[in-house]
TrEMBL record, chain A:
Pfam families: ABC_tran. The keyword ATP-binding applies. It comes from Chitinophaga hostae. InterPro entries: AAA+_ATPase, ABC_transporter-like_ATP-bd, ABC_transporter-like_CS, ABC_Transporter_VariousFunc, P-loop_NTPase. Keywords: ATP-binding, Nucleotide-binding, Transport. Signal peptide: none annotated. The keyword Transcription regulation does not apply. Residues 6-210 form the ABC transporter domain. This is ABC transporter ATP-binding protein. It comes from the Bacteria. One of its GO terms (molecular function) is ATP binding.
UniProtKB/TrEMBL annotation, chain B:
Keywords: Membrane, Transmembrane, Transmembrane helix. The keyword Transmembrane applies. Coiled coil: none annotated. The chain crosses the membrane at residues 21-41, 47-70, 104-125, 131-151, 196-216, 266-287, 294-315, 335-361. This is Beta-carotene 15,15'-monooxygenase. It comes from the Bacteria. It comes from Chitinophaga hostae.
Length: 213, 375
């Protein structure tokens, strides 16, 4: 059996001494996962921990050998994250952020330009994010999540606030990237469209732990 | 029932005078408080005759009036950017254009009024004293200052994403220039908190000016004296450092997912403070390059930058709130001061650099904003 795309080992996360996550061991083979849980169960915290956005105890391995502790830069190259409610400095333009991601994460500039066009981001990419609606911000953060050469993309509530055309594009992108070997972990309170996506498994966040069904 | 003008006047005019109370107090003191009441009219008449009779002086006055109109225009344009003021686009956009232009004119002249009143009195004096050309210049400039901002307000209404004065320039910059991360915090200060950065820089410049004045009056130059002034100037930046941490916590969390090495993050931090302290370094160079060697200047700059970087790095201790931060920065400053007085500048610089690097590399990845528990 191939290495799991992500493996969590003794991962613990607390906020002000209140434990939120306590995952002894979790290994996910490549695929598309739907991360479920009630409000406040710790889905977003779990994603932020996986993405290296917030400190935690324990270790996460990507592709079997890239450690969050020992290879922090390489780790971040392999995992991308799109927030549920993205927040960026008001004076930055979409292009500023896109260039920053392309310079650091790498990836195919033309391909990202093409995705930007399909999502409709190219129309407003030169404007400061202060002028964006929540849907525009969401589209930008989704576009940023596809930059570089990630092994795993974490999408936090990607279905909300975007229009139906962008939603169709997003489903298509997930299918295309998944066919290329990229794994996805998606949180959503809305059910994922079974006709659009075949989910490998569902992950349930409850009682500070994550279980794979 | 309130009229539209009254409501808009409350939003723009009244807010302008309330927000700028401090500015007007200083201005009124400078214009009316520094002179004996009995000589006030003569003082102002002499002042007006001074600029009416001298084109260089007149140019300076016109420049100040134009600076004030820029402040007024910036205030109105910025109001549209404020949270909760989005309704202005839909409401003002629904007013017929001629009526809207009249409204803009009333709002703009309402906040430009102090200049109009002073310029009006100067105009009467000019006519009385037969200074017709200066009078014409004053009239033309003030009419222009009352009209050209209205086109910017109209443009702002049509193009909400424009922050700066010239939309085309801003769009051109946005298309051709990518903001590097080292400038993010400075952009934040200049676009969202200009008063904070300008007041800090003015205060810091005043400290350095006072330092050089004291040494000039005493007819001596001591590098240690300059370093003392520089240390106080660095301490004037503490508010900006706390703001820097809050800005990083709130808006730059996404950068933690970027594959960027700790060393690059550290270089970015150093870069922020080198750029921020650049005006002071220029002031110091201009005033001290004839009095000390290049090594002396480098020592002063390294002391200042090392202190700035250490003080910012200290904020990577999550529980370091502003009050605790002040205590530690003061303690560090005293230790450094005694080392400087004992001519141990370079050991002090090396210690500061080592301390900031250790704190940064140890704390950066594990840093998380601390939320004070409710008592």
């Amino acid at each position: 059996m191939s290495d799991p795309v992500i493996a969590l080992r003794a991962v613990k996360k607390s906020y002000q001494d209140v434990p939120i996550l306590d995952i002894d061991r979790l290994e996910l083979p490549a695929g598309i996962y739907w991360l479920q849980g009630e409000n406040g169960a710790g889905k977003t915290t779990c994603m932020k921990v996986m993405a290296g956005l917030i400190p935690f105890k324990g270790e996460i391995l990507l592709n079997g050998n890239v450690s969050s502790r020992e290879h922090p830069v390489q780790f971040r190259r392999l995992i991308n994250y799109a927030e549920a409610e993205p927040l960026y400095p008001s004076f930055l333009t979409g292009r500023d952020l896109l260039e920053l991601y392309l310079h650091t994460k790498g990836g195919n500039r033309e391909e990202i330009g093409d995705i930007g066009g399909r999502l409709g981001v190219d129309i407003f990419v030169n404007n400061p994010v202060s002028s964006y609606s929540s849907g525009m911000l969401k589209k930008l953060s989704l576009l940023l999540a596809f930059t570089g050469n990630p092994a795993l993309i974490l999408l936090d509530e990607p279905l909300i606030t975007i229009d139906t055309r962008a939603l169709t594009v997003l489903y298509d992108l997930i299918r295309t990237y998944s066919a290329k070997g990229v794994s996805f972990c998606i949180t959503s309170h809305q059910p994922l469209d079974a006709e659009e996506l075949t989910v490998t498994g569902t992950l349930k966040v409850a009682h500070k732990n994550i279980t794979l069904n | 029932m309130r009229t539209t003008s009254a409501i808009l006047s409350k939003i723009f005019t009244r807010r302008f005078y309330i927000d700028n109370t401090g500015f007007f107090l200083v201005l009124f003191y400078a214009l009316f408080g520094v002179v004996n009441g009995a000589n006030l009219i003569n003082y102002h008449k002499a002042l007006m005759l001074g600029f009416l009779g001298n084109y260089s002086f007149l140019f300076l006055v016109l420049l100040l009036w134009t600076a004030y109109v820029l402040k007024c225009t910036g205030f109105i344009l910025k109001t549209f950017q404020l949270q909760g003021y989005d309704f202005l686009f839909s409401t003002m956009g629904s007013i017929d254009k001629p009526a809207r232009i009249r409204t803009w004119f009333l709002l703009h002249t309402g906040i430009y009024m102090p200049v109009l009143v002073y310029a009006g009195i100067a105009l009467l004096v000019a006519i009385q004293q037969h200074y017709y050309i200066p009078a014409a210049i004053i009239v033309v400039l003030n009419i222009a200052n009352c009209i050209w901002p209205l086109t910017l307000y109209e443009r702002k209404l049509a193009q909400p994403d424009i922050i700066f004065f010239t939309g085309h320039l801003q769009r051109w910059i946005n298309r051709h220039f990518t903001k590097p991360p080292v400038l993010f915090f400075l952009y934040e200060l200049f676009t969202n908190f200009p008063r904070r950065i300008v007041s800090t820089k003015l205060f810091s410049a005043a400290i350095l000016w006072l330092t050089f004045l004291v040494m000039t009056r005493g007819e001596y130059f001591d590098l240690r004296g300059l370093q003392l002034g520089v240390m106080v100037s660095v301490l004037a930046h503490m508010q900006l450092m706390v703001h820097h941490r809050a800005f990083d916590d709130t808006y730059l969390n996404f950068m933690e997912n970027l594959p960027v090495s700790l060393f690059t993050h550290y270089l970015r931090l150093i870069g922020v403070y080198v750029i921020m302290f650049l005006p002071e370094m220029i002031i110091i160079t201009v005033n001290a390059y004839t009095k000390t060697s290049a090594v002396g200047l480098i020592t002063v700059f390294c002391t200042a930058l090392s202190l700035l970087i250490l003080f910012r790095s200290m904020l990577f201790f999550p529980k370091m709130n502003p009050e605790v931060h002040v205590r530690y920065t003061m303690l560090t400053s005293f230790i450094v001061l005694f080392m400087i007085l004992g001519h141990y500048e370079w050991p002090a610089i090396l210690l500061l650099q080592a301390a900031s690097a250790i704190i940064f590399f140890k704390k950066y990845r594990s840093y998380e904003p601390y939320i004070e528990p409710e008592s």
